[in-house]
Amino acid sequence: MLANGDLVSIQKIRLKQEGYFCIKFKDNNCCTEPIPFLSEETLLLFAPANTKIHSKIEKVHFHTAVVPNIKNRKECTSHFEIYVSISLKQSIEVTKDNEILLVKGKLIV
pTM of the entire structure? Predict the structure, then answer.
């Protein structure tokens, strides 16, 4: 409900971010094959008929950790596992007739 008492509909949308990354090792200048990733999230947006949703990834941060593979440790010490965490900073705008639509509200579950 808006401040003036009008009711508005909120749409539940699924947003998908996908791409790939490569890992380059400093020691031997070796690079992995492209590794795909996929992230999905559900958002609640005020997006009435004839609106457009604009999404832009503004910043990407990767955090990696290299861990020895304990299962193969006795056989070969050159095996390891790489854990990768990806953080995306993203902006989302809903526009109608080239104007940004803004609605403030509270999520009541």
Answer: 0.60
